[in-house]
Amino acid sequence: MTAQIIDGKAIAQKVRQEVQQEVLALSSQGIVPGLAVILVGDDPASQVYVRNKTRAGQEAGIAVFDHHLPAQTSQAELVALIRQLSGDPRVHGVLLQLPIPANLPVGEILDELDPRKDVDGLLEANVGRLWLGRPRFVPCTPLGVMRLLRESETKLVGARAVVIGRSILVGRPMAGLLLGADATVTICHSRSADLGDRVAEADIVIAALGKPEAIAGHFIKPGATVIDVGINRLADGRLVGDVAFAEAKLRARAITPVPGGVGPMTIAMLLHNTVRAAKLQHGLISV
Ligand code: NAP
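Above: inputs. Below: predicted complex with NAP.
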């Protein structure tokens, strides 16, 4: 058996086209979805991410407001900007590109943001809502994974899912979403015993541990769906995921490649969340 390769690039393109249609429909009612992107400092990887988000937003017809602040920005200055954006009716979503310089307390700063503009789903109000079964904004990467599961016709109800990783941005919200979709969820982390056994019994494997090819193919249950969130650059320059893809694809029913799997979905879901924020703030949906 060789697995269906889940084409994240094509699915992300489909999501972006859906977003574009929704932006057009909103624009005809005089609503232009707006996204503010804040970058603090000159981290080269963050600069690339911000550029890609800005370009993707503009392509979808979203008004993007870029705020590039110097690395020496004080907490008070950043808080003042976030308060200003929270009150700006042209801005429906605010994204603070992480990481920010270590001297700035990210939690305290994000608390200043209007939770209805938290398109990254990081505020306590939005994390809490996910776990209460009433999600409003959910972090973009796990939201993208849910779309990949749907597009690959993976059965979720009653399925055994293992999430490897418990970060705030990926593992935890991923587990919350799968639970909300009636899967039976196990969360593994660096202190988990018997990781291989947990993977071997899973119908759905979500690998988000950030360790190159750490999940060996022979652990995968035949017929499982494998979603590889990991992005790891090897010394020889190659980009690989957290799953040993070549072996795993011989056992899985469906699997994402790296690159071209989860990666393209993250930006697409940010655009999706921005449109959702615009609808929410204009009373077109209630969540
Ligand atoms: P992170 O904050 O470093 O979290 C990694 C998680 O994996 C932690 O919970 C850690 O456990 C666990 N872990 C580490 N080593 C482990 C091991 N040997 N066995 C089991 N669990 C282990 O990383 P992240 O932000 O969640 O990202 C995870 C990966 O996804 C990274 O490769 C990142 O580059 C990638 N990523 C991709 C996208 C995308 O758009 N495709 C977006 C975000 C992240 P502890 O909690 O015990 O430390």
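The two ends are 43 Å apart (CA to CA).
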